[in-house]
Amino acid sequence: MNDCAISLTVNGVTYERRVPPRRSLVDFLRDDLALTGTHVGCEHGICGACTVMLDGVPIRSCIVYAVQADGASITTVEGLSPDGSTLTPLQDAFVECHGLQCGFCTPGMLIAATALLRENPDPSADEIRDELGGNICRCTGYQQIVEAVQLAARTGGTR
Amino acid sequence: MIVERPALPVETAPESQKRRYIGKKRRAVEHRRFVLGRGKFAGDVTLPHLHHVAIVSSPHAHARILGIDVSAALALPGVLGVVTGEELCAQTKPLRQYLDMPGVDWFPLAGEIARYAGEWVVAVVATDRAIAEDAAELVEVSYEPLPAVLDPERAMANGSAPVHASHPSNVMYHRTFVWGDVDAHFAAAERTLQARYRWHRSATVPIETFAVVAAWDTGTSLLDVWASIQMPQYPEQLATALGIPLNSVRVHFDIDVGGSYGVKRGIKHSVLTAYLSRRFRVPVKFVEDRLENMRGGDMHGPDRIFEVEAAFGDDGVVRSLKIRTIDDEGAYPGRSPLQMGKPVGAIVGAYKIASVRYEVVAVVTNKAGQVAVRGFGQAPTNFVLELTMDRVAAAVGIDRLEVRRRNFIQPEDFPYTIPSGTQYDSGNYPTVLGKAERLADIDALIRWRDDARAHGRVAGIGVASCIEPGGGNSIFQALFNPKDDSTTFPEGCQVKIDRHGTVSAQIGVASSGQGHETLVSAVLGEEFGIDPDQIRVIHADSLAGLPSQSPVASRMAIVLGDASVGAARRLKAKMLDIAAYRLGIPSSDCGWDGTRVRRTDGTGETVSWMEMVRIAHVTYHKLPPGMDPGLQAQFVLEVQNSGRLPAPDGRVQMYPCQSFSAHVVAVEIDRGTGKVSFHKYALAHDCGTVINPDIVRGMVLGGIAHGIGAALYERFVYDDNGQLITQTFADYMMPTTHEVPPVEMVEHETPSPLTTMGQKGVGEGGYMSTPAAVVSALNDALAPFGTRIDHAPATPVDLLERMR
Amino acid sequence: MKPVDFGYVRPLTIADAVKALACAQGEGKVIAGGQSLGPLLNMRLVRPALLVDVNALSELAAIQAGQAEVRIGAVVRQRAAERSAVVARRLPLVAEALPYIGHVQTRNRGTVVGSVVHADPSAELPLVALCLDAIVEIIGPAGNREASIPDFYEGYLSTDLAPDELAVAVRFPAPEPPPGVVRAAAFAEMARREGDFAIVAAAAQLDVDVAARRVVDARVGLTGVAGVPLRFAAAETALRGAAEPRRVFASVAQTVSDEIDPDSDLHATAEYRRSVARVLVSRVLERAWLRAFAGENGR
Fold this sequence. Notes:
The complex is a heterotrimer. By secondary structure, chain A is an alpha+beta fold. Helices cover 31% and strands 16% of the residues of chain A. Chain A folds into two domains: 4-79, Ubiquitin-like (UB roll), CATH 3.10.20; 89-155, DNA polymerase, domain 1, CATH 1.10.150.120. Chain A has helices at residues 25-32, 89-96, 106-119, 125-131, 143-155; strands at 4-10, 13-19, 51-54, 57-60, 73-75. In chain A, strands 2-1-5-3-4 form a five-stranded mixed β-sheet, sandwiched between helices. Chain B is an alpha+beta fold. Among the domains of chain B are: 31-39 and 490-638, 2-Layer Sandwich (Aldehyde Oxidoreductase, domain 4), CATH 3.30.365.10; 377-384 and 400-471 and 655-801, Aldehyde oxidase/xanthine dehydrogenase, molybdopterin binding domain (Aldehyde Oxidoreductase, domain 4). Chain B is built from 20 helices and 29 strands. A seven-stranded mixed β-sheet of chain B has the order 3-5-1-12-9-10-11. A six-stranded mixed β-sheet of chain B has the order 7-15-14-13-8-29, with helices on both faces. A four-stranded mixed β-sheet of chain B has the order 18-26-27-28, sandwiched between helices. Chain B is globular. Mean pLDDT of chain B is 96; it is low at 1-6 and 10-16. Chain C has three domains: 7-53, Uridine Diphospho-n-acetylenolpyruvylglucosamine Reductase, domain 2 (2-Layer Sandwich), CATH 3.30.43.10; 59-173, 2-Layer Sandwich (Uridine Diphospho-n-acetylenolpyruvylglucosamine Reductase, domain 3), CATH 3.30.465.10; 182-294, Enolase-like, domain 1. A five-stranded antiparallel β-sheet of chain C has the order 4-5-10-6-7. In chain C, strands 11-12-13-14 form a four-stranded antiparallel β-sheet. Chain C has a three-stranded parallel β-sheet with strand order 1-3-2, covered by helices on one side. In chain C, a hairpin with a 2-residue loop joins strand 6 and strand 7. Chain C is globular and about 60 Å long. The chains are: A alpha+beta, B alpha+beta, C alpha+beta. Chains A and B meet through helix 2, helix 3, helix 4 and helix 5 of A and helix 1 and helix 18 of B.
């Protein structure tokens, strides 16, 4: 048995678990912690559906292994809302601007957009497209997503 | 033959002119759960004792399976069992295929023969997916490679290696339709032209792969299935393949589907997983990984060769068309050849072409199978139609937009029956095209293009129009298979007003982003005069739900919309009777006024919503005699203007409603690299009465993005050994934020006379129009070089070659 | 797509990392950013017995500016290098190339050294390392050694790094140009989409005597046209010492294009790569030259 003990904080809650080293961070979040908001699209780091914050920085959780996240602080889409029910301005903007359809890429988009707005509270459309260039959406054609991030920038960002 | 169908109860109080909710901006009700990360996708479903599946697939494009040794796999701790094709093919019935192809069987696992590289051969069930994959690597399969055929035209030839030895040839279907006097029109034409086009294999590839959880309950003899599904008759096909009664299958449609755009048809994944659950008596989950999906999921799209001839005048008016299409189905045709059938319903596009000869060939090769893709064959068909119109314009030296105007079916011509027998319900193509031109500021675009050219840059403007049929029916089944006489294609809605007066509705489909809960609640809110956000819409499972055919064919606004209206009006009629009885007057002396019923004799007396609810649910003694208690109504709608078999010559009413769009695109091609960038993308769109503007816009923009992918980036490529070399997202290129430009869109509403609100369908149109519009622009850009593109995708290599 | 079973260690010292690799007897693999390795692990194309995670080696997380070089440790993220004022000032070619690598999220995790060592012949940083005469600093059971980039790259995805060795840093020579000389760099890439691996990418760095309008030093390279990145000595020689060199950029680009012998593959034909190589070399030379005078990069 190869399992390693890990301790990490996810959405503010600390978890101690044993995991096989080969378990990806996204599989750990989804299967071990039942946080199914983060999605798996490709398992080779391209589609961005698995994007989570690791120590404040958006990364692809399908190509990071849970053991590597020992000691780290993770934020998933479930952790964006302060109470799991109130929408942040960004979440609200996605709803208002119809910045999603099937919802599968949405968690990754929200995490990437959250990171962007923290660093750049008033991004241009080009800057938004740059930051979200690694998150593939097959439903929206991106335009309503860009509009959502722009609206969020005007209405309070990631507060 | 007149087909009896329940008539929609006529609205007695004409207040429909002032709509409160239909057509108004409104937030989709589904969105909240998705932004909170609380969507429920099939891969999220978990059950006690859940086991997982991994697949062993064939490395060979064509091979006889000589033997399979599973002993090492079985010995791995955590492995519950292993199933080979030999067992599965004996224990289940073949999967449904729609052509008449005796001896051509399709099972989830290969039996004696593997017919494409990537075909599934063995399934391993284990306690987790990683262990299942470990075990899959330990399975030893010995193969005898057989000759493979990869080129569809070679596969058609006599003496080609057979993909299915039991079938006389690799041609699974070949038919020529002739509508109108094609030969005479060609003989009399002032001009003709010929062109050959190639629509390479791609698909709409959702980010979520197919996922299914199956749990066979030995206590209830019920098979529960949760799946990422968009497929008509999914429960039925499961039941048939597994040999169990249909009322032993319960498909849960309250699963959020992570994008489908046609392809989430995983019937083989589902039959396999359900079989494994029954076999090993545990719930089983199968989430395809991306490699399994790309290579062996049988989710590729149309793969076409077209030869087109047009007969036209010096004035650019097209009299007749000949279209021959060869479709490379892959090894198992399934439903995909019917994608040559559906385009029959718009075979002349928006144009008054008088006659058509349409020849279709479905051929099998040693590649993965095709599946229904957004547009169901109309994206490639519209591609060649529109590019041919461009060629006509070039031949006669008339502007491409003007040629279209000259050929358009005119507003006064509706309803208009095209040569293949489909009646178009309504449309105003010249107006919509005009709106597109103005939105695009076509004169400014021309100045931009000409200025770019003067500075040595390569720039072009493209145009495309597109008919987007909506409503769905499966009459192409009967068209392509005389043994298939199915003409029923219904959709149902059940509405209840409960004891507390709140409204809920049940629909029988899973949604993949189209916002059906939002649609139905808006329609019901409009009918009842109550806030749509107070209306609950749930997705019934297949045992509890009404007949339904899944959200294909841009149909739901049309059929589910009208089914919802129908159910609401039945309920309103009942409530009216309750109120009238309460007032002691005939129902004809009452009418609805907002959420109350008011007597129309001027006294102003009303019965409130809650009074009617209470009478229905609580005070039986006040209920009209003989009336059922409670407030609930069902309405099952056969799709409008349908229900009739095709004529012997193939003339047929395909879908009832025709939406329409006109696209104007301007592109620049980098002279040194062949890379394409967009300068402008504008369109005008007409789907009749708009129910939710954001949903309509989203569907159009999303379809355009898919269309850009098909036009410039996406292709499934097989090498000479039949290996799929575009297996990952590193090689199968999907457009990102950088490749999809901002799109300007203007709406026009030409209501349908066939639907209660005048609504038509939306969903597939962008994908059916954009490849034509983009390649039209590329060809305009290449015009100074005297070269052109007649295929999709057009890559930078293709473009650089043509700019030498 | 789950990897094979592997063991995992995250050593806190370099010595422990080396020891762990040695114990793995050739079956160990170093993971830093994981952006290249992760997909290979998930697809089971790489099947280590042990993963040695170097992300805790804090002494390797630094960008060190020396008198005549800049040393980038193995754990420095591409994103950190992108934001580094030192890199912008002292290594303009690295700064130019970084935004072309993948996407923001992959650069958040991927490392500079990792990309150099992974040696993908379509990647940007191996080309830059080659053009700048970078040195890979390596520690193994036998001790420390250094490898110069041309020697380091042996062929398609292969380097002379042994399975029990750890690349701890890449050292980029970065001598200050003499007074009156401005160093300017440019990078251009043809990829199917933004963020993809290059079909062809070109790098150019020019040291320009701005008063004399003369090229003092030139680096010219291509990636995506061979199993390893390529640098063009003949082109560099033609440019070195040239005054008003714009009139020779086209012919230099042509000779570069004539010199290469690229393959055809899924994404491009050999002829396409040759054509685009010529176009991109022209573009980067032009851009670098203009930057020298515009005060961009310009140091």
